[in-house]
Records
---
Amino acid sequence: MLSVGLNVVPFVWAASPAAAELETIVVDWMGKLIGLPHLLLFSGGGGGVLQGSTCEAVVCTLAAARDRALAKLGHENIMKLVVYASDQTHVTFQKGARLVGIPPSNFRVIQTSASSGYGLTADAIRAAVDREVANGLVPLYLCATVGTTGLGAVDPVRGLGEEAQRHGMWLHVDAAYAGSAAICPEFEGYLDGAELADSVSMNPHKWFLTNMDCCCLWVASPATFTAALSTDPEYLKNVGTNGTGKPAAIDYKDWQISLTRRFRAIKLWVVLRRYGAIGLRGYIRRHVAAAKRFERMVAEDERFEVVVPRKFLLVCFRLRELLAAVNSSGRAFITHFVVDGKFVIRLAVAGAMTEMQHVMDVWALLQGKAEEVLRRHQL
Ligand code: PLP
């Protein structure tokens, strides 16, 4: 209500200095809370922005990576640029690569497997990149995901970062949902190696009590990032464009696709001030504890199988036909995924008002429906 009602538009600093300044402050707070290295924060020479979604953030980082590479190679070499991701990476990276002119045939989807917990290994990337380089192609961009969409898997950021550095690739860390967990010291380790990243993103609108839309994007080099996104028409010149070549203030229009923008900082500021770090850690830990309990109950019931060990709030398990029976009951809504040809049911404990009791109730519902399904098949 505050964000929409105030209708403040911090696209150039002069249009709303307080809103622009607040955004720089809350993205630094968020970065510190999840344990990001100093160099990704404004206070350390990097900086951040609040965008609408990871999808938008990814397009911006891909554009910056492309321009950085083509400034050295020449624009005519765009067809040589290759983007790397895993079969668990969010599909938005493929779409983003297409949008910035990378040929679809140059988008590499590296297979993951159960042996690495469905994480993308540095060895797999090294093998793929070495092959491409030998064929005259240029590795451009690598995505490491902390908490994949389907299974909640984690790619090892440090190992992938070292591979990216070896070839001058842009490393993006997509911590869309699981990044929130990193506010708890016991989860901070998953972002180890983030100092090797060119950009990191996470969505407070997923698991951080912040209303849609709000995606934090941090970059190590604001100059490289804004070079790909800035516009400088006469009518927008202000203190941020003071002709010195060095921005005197942040013009957030140069940090995103669109020009005008929402006052998202107020939402995140309210969440951070209202709950505080301790309150937010408690919130995350309550969900993780409920997910852990659910995973244990599933594992102890021999009719079910936990398909991938849980890391955060997502439990992936299986029993065919059960999903349809549970969802058609109208009492719970659960989604599925397919991994190694196996149909998997996913329970994500992420609702702002979800309590342990809801998890206990849904487990009773799952067991009841499982009995019906198994009886029908006389298993
Ligand atoms: N990356 C991951 C790992 C996700 O789980 C999701 C959404 O589910 C996205 C990116 C896309 O996020 P957004 O809807 O903010 O673009």
Note: Residues 53-55, 90, 92, 145, 147-149, 174, 176-177, 203, 215 surround pyridoxal-5'-phosphate (CB under 6 Å).
---
Amino acid sequence: KQAAYASLRDVEPFTRCGTRIQVMLNAGLRDDMSALAMTGADGVGLFRTEFQFLVSATLPQRDRQTRLYRDVLDAAGEKPVIFRTVDIGGDKAVPYLRDEVAEFDENPAMGWRALRLALEREGLLKVQARALLEASAGRQLYVMFPMVSEPWEFDAAKQVFEDQLSYLKTRKKILPESIRYGAMLEVPALAEVLDDLLPRLSFLSIGTNDLTQFLLAADRANPKLAERYDWLSHSILRFLRRIQLATVGYDVDLGVCGEMGGRRLDALALLGIGYRRLSITPAAIGPIKELVRKVDLKEISEAMNTWLADPSLNLRAELESWARERDIDID
Ligand code: PEP
Ligand code: MG
């Protein structure tokens, strides 16, 4: 099996019907970047910048951040890297902010974390913006903001980057070739105001790990809720289908960067409701490429529409038998 996946490294993931699917990887450390060449992924769809913050006893200084981002871009070469600004706070506690974060956070996942924290500790976001802009000198920079709940948060975070860019201009520094800004959709409320947000975005990435826990009110880390926390439930897939439909007609790249994209049945469901870009864990790249090559999009989309119209159906069972009938490996 491993050899079969390795042989797919240089094979582009086209579906059976000829649609190119973007298969990207999730990373967070400098060392993760070797997976790009090993798997032949299309780029890094989610670089979790908070890893550097989480492993450090003190707030990482700007030059350390710049060095990491530059190394990551060097390792990626021509392939795109989407840097997500820090998602610390909440359950991702860092020693230097712990007291402040812990004070009121009885529900850390929906607490003072990610962009919420970064917009209030603007120094933190400013430093990260400078580091990302300087590391991207002469190259393309992709920036993504986590836990956006309302469009103004996206605007405010983007403004922090634009201010730093203006500063670098006055200093006659080499600037990024261009900058693309995107948001994560992991807070359900954002889905209701996409008409407002989408015209300002260049890409939108669904964080299904958090989105699912918020939609189902089921903690993603609690083993007692593992059965409730179900990516293949009707409500989750209908919700995701609605988001996909809402993006039609906008010039916005849509993708999923939660772990569900790396599971074959779940990826099959995502393809069936219109998703064409998945960012997943490195070990899943081979299996997902293999899956993509066996799927006819028209067939799976018709099947998903039929199944989603009937909430009494067990979607997992339907997807499994659909895949088996077509000799598609899903284990
Ligand atoms: C997500 O929530 O789906 C996501 C990709 O971000 P994280 O897992 O880092 O919260
Ligand atoms: Mg998340």
Note: Strands lie at 22-27, 44-48, 81-84, 140-145, 178-185, 203-206, 253-256, 277-280.
---
Amino acid sequence: SASSQPYRTSYHFQPPKNWMNDPNGPMIYKGLYHLFYQYNPKGAVWGNIVWGHSTSKDLVNWTPHKVAIYPSQPSDINGTWSGSATILPDGKPAILYTGINPLNQQVQNLAIPKNPSDPYLIEWVKSPNNPLMAPTPENQINASSFRDPTTAWRGVDGRWKVIVGSKINRKGLAYLYRSKDFVYWIKAKHPLHSAKNTGMWECVDFFPVSANSPVGVEMSVLGSDFKYVLKASLDDTKHDCYTIGEYDHVKDRYTPDEGSVEGDPGLRYDYGKFYASKTFFDSAKNRRLLWGWLNESSSVSDDIKKGWAGIQAIPRVVWLDKSGKQLVQWPIQEIEKLRVNPVHLPSQYLKGGSVVEVPGVTASQADVEITFKVSDFSKAEVLDPSWTNPQLLCSRKGGSVRGSLGPFGLLVLASKGMQEYTSVFFRIFKGQNKHVVLMCSDQSRSSLNPDNDKTMYGAFVDVDPVHEQLSLRSLIDHSVVESFGGHGKNCISARVYPMLAINEAAHLYAFNNGSEAVTITRLSAWSMKKAHIN
Ligand code: DQQ
């Protein structure tokens, strides 16, 4: 129940109990969305990994199915790890995933539906040819760092291509394999891409984005209207980092655009907690959707006590920003059907040092959008040129540290007496020749329980506050706050575990802890209904 389980989410995907990590094999098949996930059927910690499985008509409500893929042959007897689905030309799906063999080597396997006319794809059969890709003395692949095959794509030469993450010493890379029949795979001489000093690349993802439109595209598009995104989940820092670049379809080489930073720090999908993510092309709505795992920030013993760990972020639509230099993400529109009891506050002046409550919403389960207008920049604090690390800047200047233009934003999951709150806010600085916007998510006061990781998160947002208003949206769901700044130019997800600000005792406020006034031009909040999840 809600009172004994105050941290269970109401509209974020999670299994009824136990451990969940990476999203696997997302796809749409016969009009149904499928999500598989790394799952421990035996407990709330990582281990005994199988593929949990659920389907949905709307990406909001989910029906559970039996475990789809589990250890059953030598090539996966010690674990069925992450992988991806590919829709073949005949419309049927195929799954490539990593198996752990009896020697504890990582190898790549194929599974196909037993009965493709079943839209639920309940039963999966494994290829008798498994493993299809494996480390050998000849190929010199590191057998403990060779995993997580992507969705495959068909090249201009008619052959299938797929990439698998790895490392050679400190160099992270994506091995490329080619096949004529999806069963017999040959490793290419060159990886698709590699980058020095980035460590192991887990859960690589590689996909095209339209250069001039937010419409999503599938893997096999050709031409100059598309850029490519290569994402790696960096095992060293547990961050999902990406670059934007070009893909040479003939040489099968990816080249990041000039000026793009490889590895960490670099561009991230999310500057909070968000890992092992994966996209897929939603052919029903022509969009590219992103799934990502939000791990707990609580202690292992608290996870065991509550009996579960891990949720999935609300699926996000991903597209290329007009600048061509970064992605933009926005929660799927479908989630808005859970919105009830809208509260719209009138446009108002928010004086320095003020707090306004947003009344009438269930603040522990809400969706809120707020937009700020700043008119006077004369008092903006000067950005010290040494302040290049936004997360560090956020930790030095948390929500309770007064500034001039900011901090202003939201106090979410707040207790009545403010013993607990999570603040999500902006600060505006005067940079060299423009204003710089910092967005932070400050968990330091989120809970009276000292056993949680309360690291502050932050990033610079590429918006010009002189010409644009500053928008912030937060999806609040008991123990998660997913925040989107600048209409999705910047995302920060946080896991928090208040002890007082739970269920009906949670409150929501807008605040301005700067000395200068700002104007709230829009504040809309909704209570969120509970979704049917598993
Ligand atoms: N999780 C899986 C691996 C992957 C890692 C194992 C990323 O396949 O590299 O559960 O979180």
Note: Helices lie at 300-306, 390-396.
---
Amino acid sequence: LVTMRILGLETTCDETAAAVVSCDGEGRGHILANEVLSQIAEHAAYGGVVPEIAARAHVESLDLLVARALARAGLDLSDMDGIAAAAGPGLIGGVIVGLTAAKALALVAGKPFIAVNHLEGHALTARLTDSVAFPYLLLLASGGHTQLVCVRGVGDYIRLGTTIDDAIGEAFDKTAKMLGLPYPGGPEVEKEALRGDPERFNLPRPMLRRDVPDFSLSGLKTAVRLEAERIAPLSATDVADLCASFQAAVVDVIVDRSRVALRAFHAAAGNPTALVVAGGVAANQMIRAALQRFAAEAGLRLVTPPPALCTDNAAMIAWAGLERLRLDLTDDLTAPARARWPL
Ligand code: KG4
Ligand code: ZN
């Protein structure tokens, strides 16, 4: 195997990010720089990401982040073996910003260009951090996506299950908003849940035991709203108990869906080498602990990349670009920006 270095850009949502990632002669990945600028402050007043504000913020800070990433890595554009950008799925204005910048850099520097699927970035991160071998079972849970995937190889995915309505992170965010907690809601709900009673409210566990590992979360969210309306005005204890009860329901659903997905995985691809959890929701300690118990029961290694690599970042885009470049899977400069792009 040859050593390689890639510059990666990520602009599909509300994080502007640039990173430099390398692989050594053994194929192991190394993060040489991983710069992220969150726009949370710019969107907080609106309780969610405003696409137009996001796109403008990406334009304003992306070149600075690229310069910073290269400086931190102690490298120059000419040292790169390729330039990668997330070409979707995501908010189209932001995607266009990152994609156009990466194409321009590739053209100027005369380097290969790689259009990366943002979801593939999340899916392959465990190979950067833990050298996980194919095939593995992936739970990808973020603000925009909820999928259980059989990862057989680079570009070779079987989607076993997905959500038929809200993403898990989105359910956390909407629940938080309903209860008057700030955006993004996941960490806030988790914090409240720590001092709440998970058994006070008997909330539904949608899809439990269904034999296709899909998710449905909007009914759970509605159940929280109805309980909140029933007992309003809410005390601090009420909010904490609602958060704890909501989180307990989500945990039950995630473990049940993962168990069903593992059965489907066996049928499709034999034994996985690991259960990998990625996406912003993987930062949740309760969810991690429950999946750890499930993985141990199933005799599987649980791999959860560190939180900074679970939420949106450019190291995962650079790494996915590197994995593709290694296989000569490069793209030409006409590669389109895609708002929707299933794995
Ligand atoms: O992967 P990510 O950074 O961005 C997307 O691609 O969506 O995920 C962000 C999502 C948000 O919905 C956020 O509320 C959720 O991940 N999240 C959490 C936690 N930290 C972030 N959800 C539950 N518990 C957490 N600790
Ligand atoms: Zn993401």
Note: The two ends are 27 Å apart (CA to CA).
